[in-house]
Amino acid sequence: MTKGHLFLIPAAIWLVGCGEAPKEKTTAASQPAVPVSTATAAIETWPANYEATGTVRARTSAVIAAKLMGYVREVKVQAGDRVREGQPLVMLDTRDLDVSSRRAEAARDEVRTAVPEADGAVAAAKANLDLAQVTFGRMRDLFQKKSISNQEFDEASAKLKAAQAAYDMTQARRVQLNATLARVDQEVRSTEVTRSYAQVLAPFAGIVVSKAIEPGSLAVPGAPLLTIEREGAYRFEASVEEDHLAAIRVGQPVSVTLDTIDRTFDARVSEIVPAVDAASRAYTVKIDLPVLTALRSGVFGRARFQLASRSLLAIPAGAVIERGQLQSVLVADSGVARTRLITVGQKLKDRVEVLSGLSAGERVIFPVPQDLADGASVEVRP
Length: 382
Hints:
alpha+beta, CATH 2.40.50.100, 4-stranded antiparallel sheet, 4 helices
């Protein structure tokens, strides 16, 4: 191949490249412009909000425990069951208690059978005393008339004293018997109360949220058996950072969003716990929730507190295009749609805050036509 042919090959390649470029430009320019509407990114004044996460808790919750030690004979409820006040929940084995109760009742019966005998002894002693008093009176009259000897008078006086002592003794035994009877009655009542502890009852109407005992297990005083929450009485406990606590007060309106049931509630702050959590450096703010059967303790949510107003850049929420974790908008720039990545903040009704990626006065395409791509020709219409 000659040197002249080597110069002809690059020249041909350059001519082909130059010939194709005008063809591509002609194709892009031939696409019709897509008619679009736009909205202006504007500075707006919004109420400042502070969002805190938290958990739903029951206002009234009780950990049920046994008052005495014993083996569990029967568990009458399961987790999730609704119970009424006073309903039996757990039954303990009462055989030992039954023996003690029968022993106390036997002792009481024994004392009661001794009561008639004691009453008879008191009556007999009273009759002997009355007779001794009458006899002594007669002997005294005769002694004053010198009709009996001193010996006979002394014997009558001694019999009176003996009858009085016997009567006092029977009365004392009767009083002692009454005290014994009262004691054994108290023991019987005590065993009955103790036996009643073998039947664990619901302290209030609610729902069983957890069960930590099974039949055959040993119940120990103070060890949790069940946990019951009063149904329909829940509150939201939010963790509020130290620097935002000063702006929150009791009675303040707050919006609570619960993710599990996808509901938002208007509520009020009911209590601010003054102690700060040492680990998170956050305070607990309690918010009363409305009655709703779908609520359960442990549900995660967010509380939004309204603070002072602030200025921000906002656009229509419908203008934002979301692809995965990325948010973007299409900006009409000299008749061409240009993609602009943005960072969004809070949302208020149909508007969304723009943190970065846009400037005030720029016009974003809204609503966004389907299949409108970056670089497409657009015609902005009013």
